[in-house]
Amino acid sequence: xxxxxxxxxxxxxxxxxxxxxxxxxxxxxxxxxxxxxxxxxxxxxxxxxxxxxxxxxxxxxxxxxxxxxxxxxxxxxxxxxxxxxxxxxxxxxxxxxxxxxxxxxxxxxxxxxxxxxxxxxxxxxxxxxxxxxxxxxxxxxxxxxxxxxxxxxxxxxxxxxxxxxxxxxxxxxxxxxxxxxxxxxxxxxxxxxxxxx
Length: 197
Hints:
Blueprint: H1 3-20, H2 30-48, E1 66-73, E2 76-82, H3 84-103, H4 121-138, H5 149-170, H6 175-194
Antiparallel strand pairs: 1-2
């Protein structure tokens, strides 16, 4: 897991966005990034579908479900398998890394031991939402001064650790798949910025 590489790539993308929208440079984007992460987590759960007790179709949406016609190289377009579950997962990873950058988190200080992963995907999704909310809670200016930078760093680490466990233990992704999908989506995100997304 090369977190330093991913943090650097995310920093480049965040800077690209700020260059395109310079009016954002003086705005506190952290609350928006936290909400965006929660929305993306919801989209990830939507593609996972396992919480839909009212539905007979609880099968996760994976690469066997979708073909997409897209440009993949200089040679042109062709049909490729799209994995919506993995794409939503790396969309979340983009926002997690961006939040970490905003908080001044150092990649070398992130510890992933998988002890925060719940016994089930449902439990892990719910825990993940709670950990993300804890970051927002700790950033509230009206909280007592007893909330420290260490508390915020620990909350971020909880998000990261739980998120990795969700992907590897419950969604079945390897870190190699996650990293490659992040690299692919990061490239798409840069192209979107360049093309006026």
